[in-house]
Design goal:
With about 350 residues, the protein is α/β, with parallel strands linked by helices. The chain folds into 2 domains: about 1-150 and about 310-340, Medium-chain alcohol dehydrogenases, catalytic domain (Quinone Oxidoreductase, Chain A, domain 1, Alpha-Beta Complex), CATH 3.90.180; about 155-290, Rossmann fold. Helices cover about 25% and strands about 25% of the residues. It has helices at about 40-45, 95-100, 145-150, 150-165, 180-190, 205-210, 225-230, 245-255, 275-280, 295-305, 325-330, and strands at about 1-10, 10-15, 25-35, 50, 50-55, 60, 65-70, 85, 130, 135-140, 170-175, 195-200, 215-220, 235-240, 255-265, 285-290, 315-320, 340. Strands 3, 7, 8, 9, 10, 17 and 18 form a 7-stranded mixed beta sheet that branches. The radius of gyration is 20 Å and the shape is globular. Mean pLDDT is about 95; it is low at about 345-358.
Amino acid sequence: MKAVVIHAAKDLRVESSACESVSAGQVRVKIEAGGICGSDLHYYHDGGFGTVRLREPMILGHEVSGTIAEVGDGVADLAVGDRIAISPSRPCHSCDYCHRNLFNHCLNMRFYGSAMPMPHIQGAFREELIADASQCHVISPDVPAELAAFAEPLSVALHALNRAGDIAGKRVLITGCGPIGALAMLAARSRGAALVFVTDVIDHVLDIARATGADQAINVAKHGDWVDEFRADQTSFDVMIEASGNEQALRTGLDVLRRRSVLVQVGLGGDASLPLNLLVAKEIDLRGAFRFHPEFAEAVALINAGTLQLKPLLSARFPLDRAEQAFEMAGDRTRAMKVQIDFTTPHQHEATDGTTGR
């Protein structure tokens, strides 16, 4: 089979990979759609992020959907032909965190496409994948594969909202309108937020946010004075989802959040300095949000229900043999929100934004 393999920064190859056999409790999946994530882009552009570096070739990808082609012994709830979204979260179920049902903090996590351990955990950007039955969530017949592949990033957004607590009737600020920020906006709206205010520095993604439900979407690079209005209002925002990983966004959020509000940091961006006096004086709860686990089932249920406008977030799809072009476009935020690889055809086809997948 063919797989998308990263060897080093800017050294991405579509090459042959050995097919694996199905064991008890597992299924073989024909992969159909795979979304390119921010971590995939870090491996492609930089060879890793922070202290996590590529030390051997690794198959990328963890946002995938497909169709079951073979079922192993002992699998009762899945059948050949079922269309599924696949959770890349594979905890050990043996460590202290797993015993406390904090599976996203598993000490022995096998998360697809991760260079954290050695040997690396191979990813899901391949024509066939052997998955545990517990990872597979059935999608409705009317849901296309490309929308089903949003289940993983939607799970990240849902976990961030779960860390914030009940947001019904609350005013929510989301800083950073990449895929996670945009999905958090959609999910916040579906959970009954009274107002969802989105910021970014790219007009293209803000246009998408406005079209899909944001009450306000501000380009902070062009309208830095927006903060003055909200800073003077001591009851501005109840919840902030910081999805950019940008220090200035985090500091600005502390200015416009109301007292005893909640700030959830989901974006990754390295070290940042904080105005601790403001954090203390306003008694703001600063909470991290890392990955997900039970939220994947909720994400698939929302996708099956068709209640979220996911299609506008999909900028383009590229066939497998044009994976490098897909990664190049995914790294250009002025053109792309979410870019996917189509594993069903090796031929050029039309991208969802009307441009050709080349």
